[in-house]
Amino acid sequence: AKRNANEPEFMQAVKEVAETVIPFIEENKKYQNKMLLERMVEPERVIMFRVTWIDDAGKTQVNRGYRIQMNSAIGPYKGGIRFHPSVNLSILKFLAFEQTFKNSLTTLPMGGGKGGADFDPKGKSDNEIMKFCQSFMTELSKHIGADTDVPAGDIGVGGREVGYMFGQYKRLRNEFTGVLTGKGITFGGSLIRPEATGYGDVYFAQSMLATKGDSFTGKTVVVSGSGNVAQYATQKATQLGGKVVTMSDSSGYIYDADGIDAEKLAYIMEIKNVNYGRISDYITKYPNATFVAGKRPWEVKCDVALPCATQNELNEEEAKTLVANGCICVAEGANMPSTPEAMHVFQNAKILFAPGKASNAGGVATSGLEMSQNSLRLSWTSEEVDERLKGIMANIHAACVKYGKDSTGYIDYVKGANIAGFVKVADAMLAQGIV
Ligand code: NDP
């Protein structure tokens, strides 16, 4: 703990895992005396580097780039790249640590990693984004590869940025390989990858509801965020018969009592993915909706909540409000959106609660499928990928039930996901010796 004392997000993520995994280790002799958890919290490698680029005004800019290569026991490092001004070592280590468990849960051979830069893409021109991505990849290319480390997108890194980074990697290495996932369909991307995290989150919530004999039909759903994960979670929840009444960004949330249907969602996608604009623009086209500035959507009454924006975006008070308003299911689309206190509120109320490492694993799982397709040099159909995604989410749900269900029938998805994720990585580490 001392070594990481100034890394609050990382400490938060480790504490959550330790609380459930340490008792499990104490009950299972096989995992004792090998410092397994101690080894897992120490990244195999951390790379930090200068990223310099020239903006449109001709001014030289300097950012800091990172890649955390956390754990390669079960496969090449795998995890997204985040471009956001808040990016620092603590946030990326928390994400890389969570990623190790998540990737293990998918059952695919992927280790854990994460990277990014403190670069703010907001307000940057397309040319500036390309310049930044090229400079970032110029250094990163020395440390990654299809069999070593395979990054993907995350906050601030979507299809456009992955494309620019892939182009630069190819130019530098003279290799066309599956070194990044989330690529465009014309150059090795997988169908359904853009949809996968949001869809997977909703498939997982569907399995959770099914344990109570329930479904999305007729449910009021509150979604936070309006980026990649939020958009496709909204789409799938709507397709399954739910009514999504909110979406948000860092400036506030929109509330649409009639529900954000397919046509309205298409408008949000235009605002966010084409114009790189603000969620508040929604009310200019749909004046019946309201925009609530500077607030988060958890005060809105709902049956199901899908937090899909960022870490620590749902606190204890907000969790209490959700429970008091009758929310029965929270499935995290983002990574660690609920604070530890919020998580305890959901668990004490015994409502269905899934941590991101289980419920948002559909994205990286489909990235794993993209890697397989690249290696085979072929492309599967949307239906084929979607079927595999559904199967993987169902398996993750089953693993959570296996390790998380108590004698009263309550399913602790946090415990279930942590132990199931731990077992596979720990077994591989034991077999590979003290390295
Ligand atoms: P995007 O960049 O597409 O969208 C992020 C959304 O969250 C935007 O609406 C953004 O608003 C909002 N947001 C970001 N930072 C903050 C903040 N500090 N406060 C309030 N709102 C914020 O990212 P993704 O949709 O890809 O990622 C969302 C979450 O899902 C992250 O936690 C990510 O790690 C996680 N995730 C993503 C996966 C993927 O496949 N993309 C896979 C698994 C997890 P604004 O535009 O105002 O910044």
From TrEMBL:
Q: Which domain of life is it from?
A: Bacteria
Domain Glutamate/phenylalanine/leucine/valine/L-tryptophan dehydrogenase C-terminal residue range list: 190-433
Molecular functions (GO terms): glutamate dehydrogenase (NADP+) activity
Sorted keywords for this record are: NAD, Oxidoreductase
Keyword Zinc present in the record's keywords: the answer is no
NCBIfam families hit by this protein: PRK09414.1
Q: Which protein family is it in? A: Belongs to the Glu/Leu/Phe/Val dehydrogenases family.
Subunit annotation: Homohexamer.
- PANTHER family reported for this sequence: NADP-SPECIFIC GLUTAMATE DEHYDROGENASE 1-RELATED
Mind telling me what this protein is named? Glutamate dehydrogenase
The organism is Flavobacterium solisilvae
Lineage from the top down? Bacteria, Pseudomonadati, Bacteroidota, Flavobacteriia, Flavobacteriales
